[in-house]
């Protein structure tokens, strides 16, 4: 009597990439993220991150503040790099502003409630 299923087979062994060299699957690096954060009470904060390096964030922040009549600041984050923070819910205004400036709408992700 011989036992056939005693072969050494490791189901978790590396067999290469089954999807075929898709190293960017799930990466969020090529998107511009517009998020909203709740502060206290009715106060909210809108954050913008992931802008390409060719944009001057200080000039963009100044244009946002003038256009939307709100205050804002540029914050350095260790994970996300430089993040623009604006007072209030400015998500749709930022999105339309960036589309008018020539950024494709498919690269902009708007998050929040």
From TrEMBL:
PROSITE patterns: SUI1 (PS50296). Keywords: Initiation factor, Protein biosynthesis. CDD domains: eIF1_SUI1. The keyword Protein biosynthesis applies. InterPro entries: SUI1, SUI1_dom_sf, SUI1_euk. Residues 1-24 are annotated as: Disordered. It comes from the Eukaryota. GO terms for molecular function: mRNA binding; translation initiation factor activity. It holds the Pfam family SUI1. The keyword GTP-binding does not apply. Residues 32-102 form the SUI1 domain. Belongs to the SUI1 family. Probably involved in translation. This is Eukaryotic translation initiation factor 1. The lineage of its organism: Eukaryota, Fungi, Dikarya, Basidiomycota, Agaricomycotina.
């Amino acid at each position: 009597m011989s036992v056939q299923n005693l072969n050494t087979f490791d189901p978790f062994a590396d067999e290469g990439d089954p999807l075929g060299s898709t190293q960017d699957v799930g990466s969020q690096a090529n998107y511009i993220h517009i998020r909203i954060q709740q502060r206290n009470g009715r106060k909210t904060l809108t954050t913008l991150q992931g802008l390409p390096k060719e944009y001057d964030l200080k000039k963009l922040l100044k244009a946002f503040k003038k256009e939307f009549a709100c205050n804002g600041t540029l914050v350095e984050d260790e994970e996300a790099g430089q993040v623009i923070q604006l007072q209030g819910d400015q998500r749709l205004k930022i999105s339309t502003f960036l589309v008018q400036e020539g950024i494709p709408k498919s690269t902009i992700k708007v998050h929040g409630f």
